[in-house]
Amino acid sequence: MPIYRFCVALRHCDGTVDAPVREESILASNADEAIEAAKRIHVDMVGTWTNSIYLTDPAGHVIWSLRLGEVWLDRDC
Questions:
Q1: What pLDDT does residue 71 have?
Q2: What are the sequence ranges of the domains in the chain?
């Protein structure tokens, strides 16, 4: 079964993303199954000072993401 990577990170106003502060592997038979699994993972974005969640496929391409656009933790925006 392919391994997908679930990541939680801080996305800055300029679009750059810091290294993930949390990573988990998701074993799934396909991308749709991996995305459904990722949606069930609880993330405390405020507690971890993050605002972006994303899932990559085995090749490292982002296949799903979620961002708290109205919450900027780096106040330089």
A1: 53
A2: 3-67
